[in-house]
Amino acid sequence: MFETVLVPTDFSKYSDKVLECVGGLPGVKKVVLLNVIGPVDPLATIWNPGARLKVAKKKLLDQAKLLEAQGLEVEQRAEPMLEGEIFRNIQEVSEEEGVNLVVMGARGKGFLQNIFLGNVAKNVLRYGDRHLLLMRYKMLEGGIDLEEYCAMITTKVLCPTDFSEPSEEAIRFVKGMIGVREVVLLNVVFSGESQAHVDAKMKEAREKLNAIKEGFERDGIKASVLISMGDPAEEIIAVAEDENVSLVAMSSHGKGWMKQHIVGSVVYEVSKNGTKPVLVLRASKAS
Questions:
Q1: Longest Cα separation, the chain
Q2: Which tens digits make up the pLDDT trace of 83-102?
Q3: pTM here?
Q4: Which class in CATH covers the domain with range 152-281?
């Protein structure tokens, strides 16, 4: 499912924590470690990355050993950023390596430091064509060891849906993931012309979610249904917390509120303000 995974790293403690979790992802066999080296002075017209490349390669070798100890094949790539933006390097390497999934940490000391505030995450979300796992654990902030959590990342998955075909594809994708024991199916009603209209929409949503729930239960996966009203991103974050899910899995496209994912709106806000890992499933690949 996720046979080849790309992990951009800046060698921070958050990058190290992400590496500890990669081995627990379903089906992963190979990891491509990528460090992008840009000029110290962004306005510099001439720079020689040679010395920094040497340091980066040594650090990549150290990180590779952590992954190889988990039985994974590892490729190390230190790439100078000659022009453009970092997300383009990530995309180019993803294409060259045939990557199924890109895994990025929530914080770092270098280009990942402002991943949920700057252009890197927005552009990877908007323009990337690979499944994207954004690791954001509340436990990281307190420095608590994540080892026990990493092996359970697919244990309890929150699946928000607007009932579009892309979001249904994402749900089918989750259904086929290894290690999924429980799912929480969520629909957010965010508008209505009247209370009667809202009630009708919620009733219709419950019927559709119950049908999806039955499909999971036939496959031996525990499932529950939730319907809420309000801002989609805020509701997803609240449910993820209340249900203590291990992962939020969301389609990158949709027909209703999820169509905003094309500009990174809802999924970006969930990733920025939530405390759970977010798996963004690209519509064209979630089948």
A1: 67
A2: 667 888 899 999 999 999 99
A3: 0.85
A4: alpha beta
